[in-house]
Amino acid sequence: MKLRDTIHDCESQRLAQRVAKLEEKLFGAMERIAHLEEDNARLREENAKLQQQLAAALKNSSTCSKPPSSDMVKPPKPPRKDHKKRKRGGQPGHEQHLRSPFPTEAVDRFEPYTLECCPDCGGSLELSDRPPNVLQQVEIATKPTIVTEHRGLAYWCPHCRKFHYAPLPEAVIKAGLFGPRLTALVAFMKGVCHASFATIRKFLRDVACVPISRGYLAKLIAKVSQSLAKAYAELFERLPGEAVLNIDETGHKEYREKFWTWCFRAQLYTLFRIDKSRGSKVLIEVLGTEFNGVLGCDYFSAYRKYMREFDVLVQFCMAHLIRDVKFLMTLPGREDQAYGERVRESLRELFAVIHRREKMTATAFQTALEAARKQVLKAATTRVPDTRPAQNLAKRFHQHGEAYFRFITTPGIEPTNNLAEQAIRFVVIDRRITQGTRSETGRRWCERIWTVIATCAQQGRSVFEFILDLVHAHFSGSSPPSLLPSGP
Question: What pTM was computed for the model?
Answer without folding.
Answer: 0.79
